[in-house]
Amino acid sequence: MADRSGLLILVGAATPPGRLAAALATAVEAARAGHPDIAVEILNLAENPVEICDGRSLDAYGQPTREAVARIDRAAAVLIGAPVYRASYPGVLKNLLDVTPVEALQNKPVGIVAMGGSPHHYLGVDTQLRQVLGWFGALDPASVLPQSHAAADKGSSTKNCQHD
């Protein structure tokens, strides 16, 4: 097992930076301001494509895929940001999780930031992604931080979201 440190912000979307990236940038700023001694890094799946999971062992994948998994493994905590796609989280995020060994997320705190078209769209990401993270044995976050497109368009930060 790797020596774990720092916070990894995982942008779980294949689309160019937009509202989700802006919400996660706020999370990065808050993490750095609140804990300047903790390294915070970003893994954006739009900029770091991962090979399709096809049952190979991890060492049979190319360097970019292995490095993405290694970054998850090295992190002490992970914050996953995901837009809502058809009532769920994006396939590129699912693909990365399919390639990732259980040990990389086991007993690790993992938070979720969901971006949807309305304040209730995050429920699809919450219920489905939380189940997958539970299968990994990740430590369950207290709540999901929802962010709607409307709130993002008005310039609200993630500090203004309601927690369910």
Task: Describe the model.
The protein is of the alpha/beta class and 164 residues long. The protein has one domain (7-159): Rossmann fold. The chain has 5 helices and 5 strands, in the order βαβαβαβαβα. The protein has helices spanning 19-34, 63-74, 91-99, 122-136, 149-153, and strands at 7-11, 40-44, 77-83, 110-116, 145-148. The chain has a 5-stranded parallel beta sheet, with helices on both faces. Helix 1 (19-34) links the parallel strand 1 (7-11) and strand 2 (40-44). The N and C termini lie far apart (34 Å). The model is unreliable at 156-164 (pLDDT under 50).
Largest sheet: 5 strands, parallel
CATH class: Alpha Beta
The number of distinct structural domains comes to 1
Q: What is the CATH topology classification name?
A: Rossmann fold
Counting DSSP H or I runs of 4 or more residues, the number of helices is 5
User: From the helix content, strand content and strand pairing, which structural class follows?
Assistant: alpha/beta
Strand segment count: 5
Low-confidence stretches: 156-164
Rg is 15 Å
How much of the sequence lies in strands comes to: 15-25%
Give me the side-by-side strand order of the main sheet.
2-1-3-4-5
